Structure formats: structure tokens, C-alpha cells
Write the C-alpha cells for this entry.
Amino acid sequence: MASGKGLGRGFESLIPTDLVDEDFGPTFSEDEKQASLKELSLSKIVRDEEQPRKDFNAEALEMLAASIKANGVLQPIVVVREEDKYKIVAGERRYRASKLAGLETIPAIVRTIDEQNRLELSIVENAQREDLNAIELATAYAKLKTQFNLEPAEIANRIGKSETAVVNTMRLLNLPDFAKKAMVENNLSEGVMRPLIPQEEKVIKEVLPKIIEDGWSARRVEEYLKTKKKKSSAAVLKENRFLEQEEKFVKKFKAKRVKLTDKSIMITFNNNKELEDLLKKL
């Protein structure tokens, strides 16, 4: 399978594809019909030699193994049966980490090749529908990534959209759950929500009512966030403007703390004797 280029690089860091939200999965019922969840022995599982991903970061695997030891495998791997073995379709990283964690079994969704192909077709067909909201669409794309190891360029090719459009839509999955639900319930556009993706939850909670109640556009949201960032940066700059001078005062007077503002200076000593010593020098 050809590997995606460009936006495909670092894709896992952009999109939380290990956690596909089935609340927004338009193919969830189809998935259930064509899947069999089992607990399989790791000794019965083999990797797909045609899997394009060959290198796995050792440190990241150790971290995942530690998480698996503590919490178990949270998302099943996907396999197809081949004679008396099961070949990995998606989830080789979880498989490797489970072996590192010392597990003997792993939860797995078992499919036949025909079922796998039918499910891919079902997801692609759903992704091409015009009546899906953006979160459902992002979930469908994520399924193509997690269950079929497709890179963004391959997903884009299958559904007839640009690679950039696919990645931008999938990034919506980085929004917190309350924002995703508000987006669906209030029919908010992808464009107006996209600026909120990198924001902290408190900022998203602050802006969401303005989008919903006041009908803010994507441009208005961007302007608001830009202004907010400038004010925040200016406040930090103003607060830190006298840092160098404050440090000099602390050393000179052997004070505990010195606070300078535009119109005042406040010196705090560790005890009364240090203050008296300074007063004697004046």
C-alpha cells in the first residue's frame, strides 16, 4: 500500500486516531455486523509483512506498554484470520506494546477479508454522503486510518477530496467532547470551529456561547482569539518588564523579594533585622 506524503507526515500527532468516538460513527452498526470481538493469544498473531510502517519508536512503545500494564488495552486491534493464525490489519503498535507489557492475550476484532473490504466500502460511502455533520465525517476518516492503515492521501483519493481537507476535518477530533457535541447539536460549521482546536478548554468554553448565541463567523472567532493572545502577551511583557532590575535589587539589599511597578518599589525582607540594617545605611 502506498504511503501518504506531505500532510501524512506526523499524522498520528495531529489526529487522535487511536480513539475513534463511536457516538459519531455513521458506520458503527455496519461495523458491529461485520466484526467479531475476541480475546486472542499473542502467540497466534502475526504482523502484516506488507504493512508500510516498519519502524516503531522504542521509547513510545515503552510508554504505551506501561499504560497497558496499568489500564489494559483500551482499543482492540483488528485482524483477519489466515489458517491457524491472525494477521494484523490495524494495531501493530498496540500488539508490540502488549508483548512488552508481558500480556498473553489481547482483545481483537476478527474479520474475514471479504468483511474487511465491505466495511471499508461502507465507510467510504458514508464519508461521501453530504448529510453527515463534520464530526461524523471526521470519525469516518479516522476509521479508515485506524482500521485500514490508510494515510491521508489515500483517504482523500478514495473519497474524492483533497488531502488538506481530510486532515483539517479529522483535526476536529482533537476538540473536547463538550465542543464536539455542541457542534453537532447546534449545526456549527467546520470553519467556525477549526480556530478552537488548539485552544485550552477554558477558552473554548468562553467562545462557544458567542458562536452559538451571537452567530459569530470563523473570521470573528479568529479576530477575537488573536486579540486575546495579544492582550495576554502584553500583560506578561508588562509584568516582566522590571525582572532584571528586581533581581539586582534583591542581590544589592539581600532582600527576600522586590517588586517594581511604574510608580512604586516594594522590598520584602526575611526578618526585621535585615530591614533595620538597610535603614541604618540610608
